[in-house]
TrEMBL record:
InterPro entries (alphabetical): PP2C, PP2C_BS, PPM-type-like_dom_sf, PPM-type_phosphatase-like_dom
SMART domains xrefs: PP2Cc
Protein name in UniProt: protein-serine/threonine phosphatase
Gene Ontology cellular component annotations, sorted alphabetically: membrane
Keywords linked to the UniProt accession: Hydrolase, Magnesium, Manganese, Metal-binding, Protein phosphatase
Top-rank taxon, per record: Eukaryota
Listed SUPFAM superfamilies: PP2C-like
UniProt-listed PANTHER family: PROTEIN PHOSPHATASE (PTHR47992)
GO MF annotations, alphabetized: metal ion binding; protein serine/threonine phosphatase activity
EC number: 3.1.3.16
Upper taxonomic lineage: Eukaryota, Viridiplantae, Streptophyta, Embryophyta, Tracheophyta
Pfam families reported in the protein's UniProt record: PP2C
């Protein structure tokens, strides 16, 4: 269902349960071909594979705190849910408000503000799980990766918990090329450094990471080591009845198995930084960083998010030795056997070096989305 969702104070796009119809649907594909943010233009797209869409994303450009002297900029979030859509939807509705709240308290943006916002979002969701424990116990087994980016006052803040990824396209003038630079640190058990981090944190648990069917998983259950939610892997109070036995960890644990601590980086935006590609791991499963950057660099801006999603789907079809046209006919749910939900946000950095976004330059726009 599509409904109006006016968001005063800046440009706002949110793919979730409410929206205004600015984006379009084409079967299981949702897309926003081109929009404006205070630093340039952007394009978004998402394809559903699961029975219920578990990815969520948002872009809001404007005031980033509740103070009159607020910092202005652009916030981008990509939230890749697992076990259900509840956590990613919750993060979509909560994280940015927490950023604004702590930015107001500290009178500006910082890595500490973002870290506090992640922690508050995590704690709020765990409180919700606690309140719903007896009537909706399965909520304890739902979680979400969380990737956020903020562009403000010539700085780029990147925070990530999970295995979504943001890649920068930077012009290398001497080579006449646009290079792909990965900016986010991923927390996936397929990475040896992540496995080692888990082993150090849990020295008395030889089963903290287990390889099953050629895939490394935390406790043999989940690939990511950091997330929002997944309460049953954070505290033992949720690793028991009435949660279904198949969702529980068999051995008791005294300390959290997963955590919600994001990896955060802060860097200056330089004139050669052209665009950012934020995407859930469903895109990166099929496209390399450089492949994605080459597509964005060599094709028109309008519809570039949709083009990236379709490029990933063509690769997914090729791996299964089928035609892309046949893949498009497969319905959600069954589609998950061929590819994951995929969400992409491409953000062009046309004016990121300028301190844009003063109150006079901000317009009221609309938010959008669809389930």
């Amino acid at each position: 269902m599509i409904k109006p969702c006016w968001r005063p104070g800046g440009y706002g796009i949110r793919r979730g349960r409410g929206g205004d119809g600015v984006g379009r649907m084409d079967g299981l594909l949702w897309y926003k071909d081109l929009g404006r943010h205070v630093h340039g233009e952007f394009s978004m797209a998402a394809i559903q594979a699961n029975q219920l869409l578990e990815d969520q994303c948002q872009l809001e450009s404007g005031q980033l705190s509740y103070l009159d002297s607020a910092p202005y900029g652009t916030f981008v979030g990509v939230y890749d849910g697992h076990g259900g859509p509840e956590t990613s939807r919750f993060v979509n509705e909560t994280l940015l408000n927490n950023v604004k709240r702590f930015a107001s308290e500290e009178k500006g943006l910082s890595a500490n503000v973002i870290r506090k916002a992640f922690s508050a979002t995590e704690n709020s969701f765990l409180s919700l799980v606690r309140k719903q424990w007896h009537c909706v116990p399965q909520l304890a087994s739902v979680g979400s990766c969380c990737l956020a980016g903020i562009i403000s006052d010539g700085l780029l803040y990147i925070a990530n918990a999970g295995d979504s990824r943001v890649v920068l396209g930077r012009s290398e003038r001497a080579l006449g090329e646009t290079m792909a630079i990965q900016l986010s640190m991923e927390h996936n058990a397929s990475d040896e450094s992540v496995r080692q981090e888990l082993r150090v944190a849990h020295p008395h648990d030889p089963q903290i990471v287990v390889k099953k069917h050629k895939v490394w998983r935390v406790k043999g259950i989940i690939q990511v080591s950091r997330s929002i939610g997944d309460a049953y892997l954070k505290t033992a109070e949720f690793n028991r009845e009435p949660l279904l036995p198949k969702l529980r960890v068999s051995e008791p644990f005294m300390k959290p198995i997963l955590n919600a601590e994001p990896s955060i980086s802060v860097q200056k935006v330089c004139p050669d930084d052209l665009f950012l590609i934020f995407a859930s791991d469903g895109l990166w499963e099929h496209l390399s960083n450089q492949d994605a950057v080459d597509i964005v660099q060599h094709y028109p801006r309008r519809g570039i998010g949709k083009r990236l999603v379709k490029a990933a789907l063509r690769e997914a079809a090729k791996k299964r030795e089928m035609r892309y046209s046949d893949l498009k006919k497969i319905d959600r749910g069954v589609r998950r056997h061929f590819h994951d939900d995929i969400t992409v946000v491409v953000v062009y950095l046309d004016q990121a070096m300028k301190t844009s976004g003063s109150p006079a330059s901000i317009k009221c726009s609309q938010g959008l989305g669809a389930t």
